[in-house]
Amino acid sequence: MNVRVKLEVLQRETPDFISPDLWPTNSPDLNPVDHKIWAVMHQRGVYQRKVHTIDELKQRLIEVWCGLEQSTVDIQSNPIQSLL
Fold first, then answer.
1. Number of structural domains, the chain?
2. Cβ(7)–Cβ(20) under 8 Å?
3. At residue 67, does pLDDT exceed 70?
4. What's the pLDDT score for residue 37?
5. Is pLDDT of 79 > 70?
6. pLDDT higher than 70, residue 45
7. In a domain, 39, yes or no
8. b/e per residue, 13-31, with b = 16+ CB within 10 A?
9. Looking at residues 47-54, what average pLDDT do you find?
């Protein structure tokens, strides 16, 4: 199954599907802050257990995000400070 066919299936079968032209890029160079924060959230256990639904993933992301201290976010947002 090629990419075009897969996208067609996703668009047909997934009501809330977001088309690839609206997906964020994966390059940490384009948004290093998002990349660093995501790495911290991943370390904090977003995927410690298997995710079964989108709602479950959303809930875990919210829980992990709310558990981050502001200083953690600040350090990841300021690359010079994280080197000190």
1. 1
2. yes
3. yes
4. 81
5. no
6. yes
7. yes
8. eeeeeeeeeeeeeeeeeee
9. 86
Is 10 inside a domain boundary? no
Report the C-alpha gap between 45 and 61 in whole angstroms: 9
Is 76 exposed, middle or buried, given 0-12, 13-18 or 19+ CB atoms closer than 10 A?
A: buried
Q: Residue 53 falls within a domain, yes or no?
A: yes
State the virtual CA torsion across 30, 76, 78, 70 in degrees, nearest 10.
130
How far apart (Å, rounded) are the C-alpha atoms in residues 83 and 9?
46
Residue 34 half-sphere exposure toward CB, CA atoms < 13 A: 8
List, in sequence order, the alpha helices (H) in the chain.
Answer: 3-13, 32-43, 54-67, 70-77, 79-83
The domain of 68 spans: 24-83
- The per-residue pLDDT for 29 is 59
The answer to whether residue 43 sits within a structural domain is: yes
Handedness of CA 35, 36, 39, 40 (dihedral sign): negative
- Checking if the pLDDT of 35 tops 80, the result is no
